[in-house]
Specification:
A hairpin with an 8-residue loop joins strand 1 and strand 2. Helix 2 crosses helix 3 and helix 3 runs antiparallel to helix 4. With 149 residues, this protein is mainly alpha-helical. Helices cover 50% and strands 5% of the residues. Strands 1-2 form a two-stranded antiparallel ribbon. It has a two-stranded antiparallel sheet with strand order 3-4. It has one domain. It is globular. It contains four helices and four strands, in the order E-E-H-H-E-E-H-H.
Length: 149
């Protein structure tokens, strides 16, 4: 067996499920959307997805209603997917992207590597922002943040 730094991962047709209210999350879909290459093992990716599902579900606990699920709360569909399903996946996938980007940015300690790590800080912040915007949309909250100086 040889070492391949950015090898192609074996497709995982596994879905991660949580409680009946929230939709399942496909490992392949996360890997494809976030563009995670083979340097991130399936086990590490699954752990990041578990952590993000736990966090997003905790932040959306106020939406849980008996005898329904998140998809049934939707009012709109886009390409056969409900808006709530799209926003939930966006929240989880952006959270996973921030985690993976944060953990895998520091392997190159050269000047080029340090510059790249600094550049990724903006990307990580954007992923976190997008996660919170998706959560706010699901909670029907405004996305405006005002800070007193």
């Amino acid at each position: 067996m040889g070492f391949v730094a950015n090898g192609n991962p074996t497709p995982q047709h596994e879905k991660i499920s949580t409680n009946a209210f929230f939709p399942d999350v496909s490992i392949n879909d996360i890997r494809d959307i976030v563009k995670i290459d083979g340097s991130v093992t399936d086990a590490r990716l699954k752990q990041a997805i578990f952590e993000e599902i736990i966090d997003v579900n905790r932040l959306l606990v106020s939406l849980i209603q008996p005898d329904t699920n998140l998809i049934q709360l939707s009012k709109n569909k886009v390409n056969e997917k409900t808006d709530t399903e799209i926003l939930y996946f966006s929240a989880v996938s952006n959270g996973v992207a921030a985690k993976v980007c944060e953990k895998y940015r520091g392997y190159d300690s050269t000047n080029t590597g340090n510059k790249r790590a600094d550049d990724l800080t903006l990307t990580i912040d954007e992923y976190r922002r997008n996660k919170h915007w998706a959560i706010q949309q699901l909670l029907k909250q405004n996305q405006t943040t005002i800070e007193l100086i």
